[in-house]
Design brief:
heterodimer, A: alpha/beta, Aspartate Aminotransferase, domain 2, Aspartate Aminotransferase, domain 1, 2 domains, seven-stranded mixed β-sheet, five-stranded mixed β-sheet, 12 strands, B: alpha/beta, Rossmann fold, two-stranded antiparallel sheet
Chain lengths: ~425, ~200
């Protein structure tokens, strides 16, 4: 029993999973059950009162999901995690623990279009007010801080343009403001970037993307870094104050450095309800076992494709941080030395029409609204994922009308380049 | 002198495997207090628990009588678990150092830390843990806490021990249809009647 720290690939295969005590099953079983029997009345009461660790009901926790949670917590270097139904659900649950109606959070303007919509419209109806800042201008985050600011939200690699965020610089702003930094690490995955190492307090993912990796199961996860002190100034009553839902328990006092993950579970997931299916958890776990292998291939392919496009006469520009000439290349070398991810955009000299034509001619790339699949994917963000934004917001978020987004898969790169060549050329 | 910023798992594991009796200073009978959680959990895992709290003398905690102070325990204890704020640690440590025999371990709860008191205890050979919860550490190292999505920071390729007494299955199961004769039994009966 050494205290040796296992490597990332070992954790990707083993963390959280142990042969089943009853059957000896080596793969993690799918505990496809709604509920779990109690040993006796005292056991039941202890579980409901958060006195004992154990399973009650799959909306609150499930053994298959728990393996996934520990696996991702280990890969991200966090203290604990909570799996939920989708990346969007993760964001709702996180902010519910932090914001009361009338509070604010600061978000980077370059975000997944779905997050922009969720923050702008859905959260507004909860009284959670988003204030936008620009990741390329760190001072814009400082300027946005007010006494009502409760959190800062950024993406490590921003969707759709693949730009790299200076996590450390923004974490300094968050620390100074006394608020947690939330990093959506979906496009990097912990294989490329571990935001907690750079000052993130909370990491969220859409597991649907590279972590699951096969485009077959939705899921989301929240990772608690265990770094934030929730007790200061009564600013975060869900964590620091006695909770009437649990007869006066104070979560931070009781659960210490994983209190945020527990709050998300027992106050967020329990009461809002976006539970992850254990079957999806199993599919995503299986995907994670090969994350290091896939992610490296994704990145190597993406770099080759980006270089090809950068040299093509029909292409106006390529926005991929892995290219030496890219604006974000320095940040990519610092934060993601193994590769700059596999989602990026490029624009065509022929504008919108050329983009539409390209998408229709591609044979291997699939035209759909997802990223992080084994298969290579293509989409025109302006007419799809970012279509609800106005034109100025589209351009600011990197989804102008002439922009095409690619998510590069793990096929042979020569075949991907050949497919793009025929579609661009004809 | 232990590094109290980060304990090796083997240090914590050694303590939790080694101690049998634990006196909990500041144990509360209120069932939403962390000390109550930890007391109950550790008692259920077989530790000989002694609640110490002068405010509750005459009462019991899960069947164990409260004592007012460490000196009132009247028998050797392996570990003192202190559920008090950092500012109240030193007097308890001083009281512990007056015990004969000395305890093997002094443990300060999550959020509690007093490096001077720790150094004092360590100078006479007592192991010290600060700013940790024994319930959480027990749950983590056994990976029981993994049910809650907590990173146990442990790995194992061995089958986990079953949570009950091994695989000795109970005989007391409900019988289906009162164990009534099945088709094969009827066939055997018919055959024997024919012969």
């Amino acid at each position: 029993m050494s205290d040796r720290l296992p490597g990332f690939s070992t954790l990707a295969v083993h963390a959280g999973a142990q042969p089943d005590p009853t059957t000896g099953a080596r793969a993690t079983p799918i505990y496809q059950t709604t509920s779990f029997v109690f040993n006796d009345a005292d056991h039941a009461a202890s579980l409901f009162g958060l006195q004992a660790f154990g399973n009650i009901y799959t909306r609150i926790g499930n053994p298959t999901n728990a393996v996934l949670e520990e696996r991702v917590a280990a890969l991200e270097g966090g203290t604990a995690a909570l799996a939920v139904a989708s990346g969007h659900a993760a964001q709702v649950v996180v902010l519910q623990q932090l914001l009361l109606p009338g509070d604010e959070f600061i978000a980077a303007r370059k975000l997944y279009g779905g997050s922009i919509n969720q923050f702008t419209h859905a959260f507004k109806s909860f009284g959670w007010n988003v204030v936008w800042a620009d990741s390329d201008d760190i001072a814009s985050f400082e300027r946005a801080v007010t006494p009502r600011t409760k959190a800062i939200f950024i993406e490590s690699i921003a969707n759709p343009g693949g730009s790299i965020t200076d996590i450390e610089a923004i974490s300094t702003v968050a620390r100074k403001a006394g608020v947690p930094l939330i990093v959506d690490n979906t496009l990097a995955s912990p294989y490329l970037i571990r935001p907690i190492d750079h000052g993130a307090d909370i990491v969220v993912h859409s597991l649907t993307k590279f972590l699951g990796g096969h485009g077959n199961s939705l899921g989301g996860i929240i990772v608690d870094a265990g770094t934030f002190d929730w007790s200061t100034g009564g600013k975060y009553p869900m964590l620091s104050e006695p909770r009437p839902e649990y007869h006066g328990i104070k979560l931070q006092e009781t659960f210490g450095n994983f209190a945020f993950a527990i709050a998300c579970r027992v106050l967020g997931l329990r009461d809002l309800g976006p539970a992850l299916s254990p079957f999806n958890a199993f599919m995503i776990l299986t995907g994670i076992e090969t994350l290091p292998l896939r992610m490296q291939r994704h990145c190597d392919n993406a770099k080759a494709v980006a270089e090809f496009l950068a040299g093509h006469p029909a292409v106006a520009s390529v926005s991929y941080a892995g290219l030496a000439s890219d604006k974000y290349n320095q940040l990519a070398r610092k934060y993601a030395p193994k590769g700059a991810g596999a989602v990026f955009t490029f624009s065509l000299k022929g504008g919108y029409d050329a983009g539409v034509s390209l998408v229709s001619k591609l044979q291997l790339f699939s035209h759909l609204a997802n990223v992080g699949d084994t298969r290579s994917l293509v989409i025109h963000p302006a007419s799809t994922t970012h279509s609800q934004l106005d034109d100025a917001a589209k351009i600011k978020s990197g989804a102008g009308p002439d922009v095409v987004r690619l998510s590069i898969g793990i096929e042979d790169k020569e075949d991907l380049i050949a497919d793009l060549e025929q579609a661009l050329g004809a | 002198m232990m590094n109290h910023d980060a304990y090796p798992d083997n240090y914590i594991r050694g303590i939790l495997n080694g101690v049998k009796s634990i006196a909990m200073v500041g144990a509360s009978p209120v069932n939403v207090r962390p000390s109550y959680f930890a007391f109950k959990y550790l008692a259920q895992r077989g530790y000989d628990m002694i609640p110490v709290n002068p405010g509750h003398v005459g009462k019991e905690l899960l069947g164990k009588p409260f004592v007012a102070s460490l000196s009132d325990i009247g028998r050797p204890v392996d570990m003192i678990d202190i559920f008090r704020n950092s500012s109240h640690i030193m007097p308890v440590v001083e009281e512990a150092l007056a015990l004969d025999p000395l305890p093997k371990v002094i443990w300060m709860q999550l959020g509690a830390r007093d490096d001077v008191a720790a150094a004092k205890a360590e100078s006479v050979g007592i192991k010290v843990v600060m700013n940790r919860c024994p319930k959480i550490e027990y749950g983590r190292l056994s990976s029981e806490i993994s049910w809650m999505g907590v990173n146990s920071r442990t790995l194992s390729s061995k089958r986990a021990p079953a949570p009950t007494q091994g695989m000795r299955l109970s005989l007391n199961r409900m019988s289906v249809g009162g164990g009534d004769t099945a088709a094969s039994d009827r066939a055997a009966k018919n055959k024997s009647e024919q012969s």
